[in-house]
Specification:
The protein is α/β, with parallel strands linked by helices. 43% of the residues lie in helices and 20% in strands. The protein folds into 2 domains: 157 residues, D-Maltodextrin-Binding Protein, domain 2 (3-Layer(aba) Sandwich); 100 residues, Periplasmic binding protein-like II (D-Maltodextrin-Binding Protein, domain 2).
Length: 283
């Protein structure tokens, strides 16, 4: 009897440990601005680094599109998220103050901010934003900071509004925007500036060029969500800040992600993004 009881106890203990190990996985959702294969290539070295440093398996979750990402975020499918500043602001508004930035990405070439850009075809008669009137424009997604919101802010400041243009259905991927401009389906497209060179390598868009860039907006934060664990959050922040901008360690781990490193961040860093909503209302 004692032997059977001991075996039963060991089975329960093994199952408990197994369950805890699964629970201990840290899930990081990444907004899919590029193809999943490209996003995995960009961030897999970071995931391996975090798993080793935390002593827990870190799982990279890359949904198929912006809408799916947002839905999974609301459903609590991630512990943490790495996304554009607009997604962060919306998540905090929806889910409350348990949503908070841990670090801010410092991007190669742009630093703590980034821009969106307007794409046109070589030889286009469109030479400035003022020429957008009566033209067909295409963007990534209504929640895309670099592929819609930054451009809207810029257009409103140039006195171009929705009534002045034909706004095509959202393309859902930055690559699709460039292809629409290349094949003439759109006269102007809007994407994240830093992704243009990557897109040119992935898609056949030899005639697409950048017309101009938007104003700077805050870069992407990695932020905690309501179901994250405080002790994991503290450790995660510490190991991310070890990747100081342009340090040797950051360069080796973040090269493919085109990042220089991470710096501390607070909610106040995204007040500039909140002002974009004002421009959106005017658009």
């Amino acid at each position: 009897m004692k032997s059977n009881a001991k075996k039963s106890f060991m089975v329960v203990l093994i199952l408990f440990v197994f369950a805890m190990s699964i629970h201990a996985q840290v899930k990081v959702g990444v907004l899919p601005r590029l193809a999943p294969s490209e996003m995995i290539k960009m961030f897999n070295p970071l995931v391996e680094y975090l798993s080793a440093e935390l002593g827990q398996k870190v799982e990279l979750v890359i949904p198929k599109d912006f809408e799916t990402f947002t839905q999974m975020l609301k459903e609590g499918k991630f512990d943490y998220a790495y996304a554009n500043p607009n997604v962060y602001v919306e998540a905090r508004k929806t889910l409350g103050k348990d949503v908070e930035p841990i670090v801010l990405a410092v991007e190669t070439g742009t630093g703590k901010t980034f821009t969106g850009c307007f794409l046109v075809k070589k030889g286009s008669p469109i030479k400035s934003i003022a020429d957008f009137k009566g033209k067909k424009l295409i963007f990534v997604d209504q929640k895309s900071a670099g592929g819609y919101l930054s451009q809207v802010t810029t257009m409103v400041k140039s006195n171009i509004h929705k009534k002045d243009i034909t706004l095509l259905p959202f393309a859902l991927k930055h690559t699709n925007v460039a292809l629409a401009v290349q094949n003439g389906a759109a006269d102007v497209g809007g994407i994240r500036t830093a992704d243009f060179e990557t897109i040119k390598k992935q898609a056949n868009v030899p005639d697409v060029v950048i017309l101009s860039e938007s104003e700077n907006i805050p870069n992407w934060p990695l932020f905690k969500l309501p179901n994250s664990k405080p002790q994991v959050t503290d450790k995660l922040k510490a190991v991310l800040l070890k990747l100081a901008p342009k340090s040797a360690k950051a360069s080796s781990i973040l090269k493919d992600a085109k990042l220089d490193g991470f710096v501390p961040s607070t909610d106040a860093d995204f007040n500039a993004m909140r002002k974009v909503a004002e421009a959106l209302n005017q658009f």
